[in-house]
């Protein structure tokens, strides 16, 4: 199974409630996957600043003094905001790669969840309620976000095996389904310079999209490519810095429901996930067509 | 999708037993429905606030009427045996799965495999149905006012599927003896499914189903019939090399 949600706001007045709305949507699908849960939220961008979301198995040890040590290593200002096992590191955009590299030696146990100007990613083993509570997701502000609750099939139940997967700046993906040609696609992507953290099939889909976009495709074109290049069952919901996309494989046995009003575009594995959204009774509600790419951009 | 189109006064007047799923559990509802005995006076039920719940009114085996005010999730009205169930909203996957008898009306859209394996009764979908509508149907009648998705009536064995709109890819793949009637265009036919002549008995059959489903202004003669070419029924020795 697995449950996935996505919410793309059109109405700026809802932005302070994004975290709360997305959390409710995800929690309502808890019985679709008890193994792990995660959420990616795209917040306001501040021009020159970039964020790196990191996770540590020993946050007390790894996050203490990290700001000063990292700032010294990369020669740029750094702030570290700790949330439970995760921390959001802020620095200037031109020092992100340097910071990622420095982290490998300064804190070898730290894992990078994702990076970009807008995105923050929080994911852990456990039920959606525990995960959104742990990271105080309900208080988060943003323009759009995606979430996932996992019933594992293709790889281990670990923090790194949880969704969303992020393989490019401000890019992330959640997946309901299973891919059957992920080993081959992973090999091809590695040959093209992509890096992988796990054996997970969904990470391959995320990296596939990042790779296509790095080769100049837009989100819609990259999603279109999944239909011919990825084999298996999938409903994907994808976020980029200013966009939000959905695609289902041609068989389309993994469920999907969408709703659109003047205020938002919302995605849920089931209608249940959408019932608490404002104005849902008068929203346009539909099931996305198989093998059809949908995407919205701010 | 109006969640509740009836005023309180209207509800009081209707004398229906009202079951609010925001106040009571789904299990309480289904157990109350299962406890009904022949001749019960509780013949009208109304379910409020389903909010996408799964398995609403499954396994009802008495001829009662049930109005569900809002949209439901998976498997609504499954195994229905005699009840008249109306969903005033849309339905998730597997609505009316394995229905035995009675009727189910979906005022909105239905998700995948609506009416799957149904053995009898009438399923009416007033909106669109998605993929695999009527998969492995075994005697049920299904009338869809809108379109149906791909792989509908896959391995359909008996019964009738009437579609006022269009049908998606691979209609009637590996079909047995179910009859398919489509008024709009068919994206493609599945293996062993072919177009067939509309004979007088088919016109009569379709007209009867349109009438039962409350469809007006549509003539039976506007439909095309599809069914089995019966080429997959027996092993063809010329295909032995393929195995």
CATH architecture of the largest domain in chain A: 4-Layer Sandwich
Strand order of the largest sheet of chain B: 1-2-3-4-5-6-7-8-9-11-10
What's the assembly state of these chains?
heterodimer
Provide the structure class of chain B.
alpha/beta
Provide the domain count of chain B: 1
What percent strand of chain A?
Answer: 25-35%
The most extensive contact between chains is:
A-B, 19 and 20 residues
Mean pLDDT of chain B: 94
* Total count of strands of chain B: 11
Strand content of chain B: 15-25%
| Low-confidence blocks of residues of chain B | none
Taking the sheet with the most strands of chain A, its summary is:
7 strands, antiparallel
User: What is the number of helical segments of chain A per DSSP (H or I, 4+ residues)?
Assistant: 8
Q: Distance between termini of chain B?
A: 51 Å
Q: Would you count the extended β strands of chain A for me?
A: 16
Q: What is the CATH third-level topology name of the largest domain in chain A?
A: Glutamine Phosphoribosylpyrophosphate, subunit 1, domain 1
Tell me the Rg of chain B in angstroms: 19 Å
Number of helices of chain B: 3
H/E element order of chain A = EHEEHHEEHEEHEEEHHHEEEEEE
Spatial separation of the terminal alpha carbons of chain A: 31 Å
